[in-house]
Write a structure and sequence with these properties.
Chain lengths: 253, 256
C-alpha cells in the first residue's frame, strides 16, 4: 500500500548552511492493514520519514507512493498523531474530534453522529465538553487519536504517541490502540523508542540505522492476536526483544 | 471571600480618613488639599448640573474613536505583516522608528497638520494605542506552534482555514492582551492631549479648574477619570475572560 523507494532527505542548517544528510536511500513498503513499527536511535530520521508520509515534509529525492499515487501533500486518508498531542486548546473534546470533518463542511449533526463511535471507542464519553487543559496527558492523547480517526483514514501515522505518558497509562494505551486497530482495520505506522512497545503492537518491526538513515533490519513478529499483557513474559517475546536490542545498540555505539 | 473583599477596601478608606482629618483641621490650606467630603459635594453638583456627563461623553467619544481606529488598523496590518515577509520588511522599519517615539513629541506636528480640533486628538490616541495592538497581533500569530499548524494541515485544513480556524484562535489571547493594555493607554493619551489644547473633555475640566485654583474641581475631575479608567479595565478584563474562557491562564499582562 505504501511504497518508499530510495528516499533521501537533506537538511540545510539555518545558521551555518551546512547540509546534513538525514535519510539516505531508504526503501521500505507497508501492506494494507499491516501494523509496522519503526525503531532506531534518537535523531535518526524516523519522525522525518513519518512527516514525509503525512505529506508535511518533502523528500529531497526518491519516490513515495500510496496505492501507486505519489504523496504530494497532506491528505485525509493519512492521519498523524504526535507525541505532544497538539490539540486545539480553544476547542472542546468534541470540537477537537470533529475538526477534520467540519473542515469538509460536514454538518454539525452529522459530525455529532459520526464522532460518537470514536468518542466511545477511546473511552471519552462524558468528557465531550471538557477543554484539553482540563484533561490528563493520557486523556489528551485519546482525544488526539480520536481526532485522527474521525477523518476515517486508511493510514494512521503515529510519532511516538505514548512517549510522554507514564508507564501504566502507556501500557493501557497500547492495549487500546490494538483494539482500535483490530476494529478499524487501518494501516498503522508507529514510530517509537521502546522496543518492547514495538514488538507488542506490531506485525513487523523496522530498525533504522543512525544518520544517514537506512533500513537496517526488518523483523516479522509472529505473536498471536489479540496480544495480551502477559505476552511480555513469554520466551518468544524475550527473544525478539534481545535480538532487536542488539541491533539498535550497535547503531547507538 | 467576604473578608477578602473587605480587606481590599481597607487601604482606600484609611487614606480617605487620614486625608479628611488633615484637611478638615486646617493643617494645610484647602486650596492646597481640599476636604474629601467637600470634593464629593462638588462632584455631585457637577454631575447634577450636567457638566460632568457632558465632558465625559466628549472624552469617551474621542478615546473610543482613536482606540477603535487603532484596533482595526493594528489588527489588520498585524495580520498582514505576520502573513507576508515582504509586507513585514516594508513596514517593520517604520514601526521600529515610530514606536519608541513619545506620543507627546508628535503633538506639535499633529496640531500643525490636523489643527487643534478632534482629528488631531483622535490621531494622537490612535498613535498611542496602535503599537501595543499591532505588536501583540504579530507576536501572537508568529508564536503559534509550527507543529500545531502541521496537525491542522494533516487533518485537511487549507491555507484559508488555517488562518480562520488555527492561527487566529491561537493568537487570540495575545491580541486581546494588546487590546486590553491599550484601553488604559487611550485614557492616558486622552487626558494629556485634552490638557494641552481643548475647550471640552475631562482633561480640559481638570486643567481649567487648576488655572483658577479651584482645587476641589481638580480633584472631582481626577476622581471621574479614575473611576472611568478603573471601570474600563474591569470591562476589558471581563470581555477577556469571556472571550478566552478556554484559556487556563486568563490573568495575562499587568495593568498599565
Amino acid at each position: 500500500m505504501i511504497d518508499a523507494t530510495n528516499i533521501s532527505k537533506v537538511f540545510n542548517g539555518r545558521k551555518d548552511r551546512k547540509e546534513t544528510l538525514a535519510i539516505s536511500n531508504l526503501t521500505m513498503s507497508v501492506k494494507r492493514n499491516e501494523f509496522v513499527s519503526i525503531v532506531g536511535p534518537s535523531g535518526c530520521g524516523k519522525s522525518t520519514f513519518l512527516l514525509m508520509l503525512a505529506g508535511l515534509e518533502k523528500p529531497t529525492s526518491g519516490n513515495l507512493t500510496i496505492e501507486g499515487a505519489p504523496i504530494l501533500g497532506p491528505g485525509v486518508q493519512r492521519s498523524i498523531v504526535f507525541q505532544e498531542y497538539l490539540l486545539f486548546p480553544w476547542r472542546t473534546v468534541q470540537g477537537n474530534i470533529e475538526f477534520g470533518p467540519r473542515l469538509r463542511k460536514v454538518s454539525k449533526d452529522d459530525c455529532l453522529a459520526d464522532t460518537r463511535d470514536f468518542i466511545e471507542l477511546m473511552g471519552l464519553t462524558g468528557f465531550e465538553h471538557c477543554y484539553p487543559h482540563e484533561l490528563s496527558g493520557g486523556m489528551q492523547q485519546r482525544v488526539a487519536i480520536a481526532r485522527a480517526l474521525a477523518n476515517k483514514p486508511e493510514v494512521l501515522l503515529m510519532d511516538e504517541p505514548f512517549g510522554a505518558l507514564d508507564a501504566l497509562t502507556r501500557e493501557s494505551m497500547q492495549m487500546e490502540l490494538q483494539k482500535i486497530w483490530l476494529q478499524t482495520q487501518c494501516t498503522v505506522l508507529f514510530v517509537t523508542h521502546s522496543i518492547s512497545e514495538a514488538i507488542f503492537l506490531s506485525d513487523r518491526v523496522v530498525v533504522m540505522s543512525k544518520r544517514p538513515a537506512i533500513v537496517k533490519e526488518e523483523l516479522k513478529i509472529a505473536l498471536d492476536r489479540p496480544r495480551q499483557r502477559d505476552m511480555h513474559m513469554t520466551r518468544q517475546f524475550r527473544e525478539y526483544e534481545a535480538y532487536l536490542k542488539n541491533i539498535v545498540w550497535e547503531e547507538v555505539n | 471571600m467576604n473578608q477578602i473583599k473587605f480587606r481590599k477596601f481597607l487601604s482606600p478608606i484609611l487614606i480617605l480618613l487620614i486625608w479628611q482629618t488633615i484637611a478638615i483641621n486646617g493643617i494645610v490650606p484647602t486650596w492646597f488639599l481640599p476636604v474629601p467630603t467637600e470634593v464629593m459635594k462638588t462632584l455631585f453638583g457637577m454631575i447634577m448640573s450636567g457638566e460632568v456627563p457632558h465632558h465625559t461623553l466628549i472624552s469617551l467619544g474621542r478615546a473610543f474613536s482613536g482606540y477603535l481606529l487603532a484596533a482595526v488598523v493594528g489588527i489588520l496590518l498585524g495580520l498582514l505583516i505576520a502573513w507576508s515577509t515582504i509586507i513585514e520588511d516594508f513596514f517593520d522599519p517604520l514601526i521600529e522608528l515610530i514606536r519608541p517615539l513619545s506620543t507627546f513629541a508628535l503633538i506639535p506636528i499633529f496640531f500643525l497638520w490636523f489643527g487643534i480640533g478632534n482629528t488631531s486628538k483622535i490621531l494622537i490616541i490612535f498613535k498611542s494605542c496602535f503599537f501595543p495592538i499591532i505588536i501583540n497581533t504579530i507576536a501572537g500569530i508568529k508564536g503559534v506552534d509550527a507543529k500545531l499548524i502541521m496537525a491542522a494541515q494533516s487533518l485537511g485544513a487549507n491555507g484559508f482555514q488555517l488562518w480562520t480556524r488555527v492561527l487566529l484562535p491561537s493568537a487570540m489571547p495575545m491580541i486581546i492582551t494588546g487590546l486590553r493594555i491599550s484601553t488604559a493607554i487611550a485614557m492616558m493619551a486622552l487626558v494629556g492631549v485634552e490638557m494641552l489644547s481643548s475647550d471640552s473633555g475631562l482633561g480640559f475640566l481638570v486643567i481649567d479648574a487648576q488655572r483658577t485654583f479651584d482645587t476641589e474641581r481638580v480633584f472631582a475631575g481626577i476622581g471621574v477619570l479614575s473611576i472611568i479608567g478603573f471601570s474600563l479595565d474591569k470591562l476589558a478584563r471581563y470581555i477577556q475572560s469571556k472571550a478566552l474562557s478556554w484559556h487556563s491562564e486568563t490573568s495575562l499582562g499587568g495593568g498599565m
